[in-house]
Amino acid sequence: MRTPSREIIESLRKEYPAGTIVELVHMDDPQAPPTGTRGEVRGVDDIGSIMISWNTGSSLSIVYGEDLCRKVTEESDD
């Protein structure tokens, strides 16, 4: 995997500021929380990984270009 550009990392930091609630869509890791698990963003690191405190107690990060999460908004919070 190639490290994303500085512009992409800054864009991720704007899109996923600390405190953003996300839901796991896909993570290619045997230790991944189940799809649909929600968590709170702690930040985005210097290689573009979204650091998350999952509701399951896990703290695995979303790896840019490999894993996928979506922001939970009030409209999608059913």
Short précis:
This protein has one helix spanning 6-15, and strands spanning 21-26, 38-44, 50-54, 68-71.
What would you say this structure looks like, in words?
The longest helix is centred in the N-terminal third of the chain and has 10 residues, at 6-15. The protein has one domain: SH3 Domains (SH3 type barrels, Roll), CATH 2.30.30. The protein has one helix at 6-15, and strands at residues 21-26, 38-44, 50-54, 68-71. It has a 4-stranded antiparallel β-sheet with strand order 3-2-1-4. The N and C termini lie far apart (35 Å). The chain has 1 helix and 4 strands, in the order H-E-E-E-E. The protein has 78 residues and is α+β, with helices and mostly antiparallel strands. A hairpin with a 5-residue loop joins strand 2 (38-44) and strand 3.
**Which of globular, elongated, flat, extended, rod-shaped describes the shape?**
globular
Number of domains: 1
CATH class: Mainly Beta
Biggest sheet strand line-up:
3-2-1-4
Portion in strands: 25-35%
Q: How many H/I helices?
A: 1
- Count of distinct strands: 4
Determine the CATH topology: SH3 type barrels
Supply the CATH architecture: Roll
**SS-based structural class?**
alpha+beta
What would CATH call the homologous superfamily? SH3 Domains
Mean pLDDT: 93
How much helix is in the residues? 10-25%
Question: What is the element string, with H for helices and E for strands?
Answer: HEEEE
Low-confidence stretches: none
Radius of gyration: 12 Å
Distance between the termini: 35 Å
Largest sheet: 4 strands, antiparallel
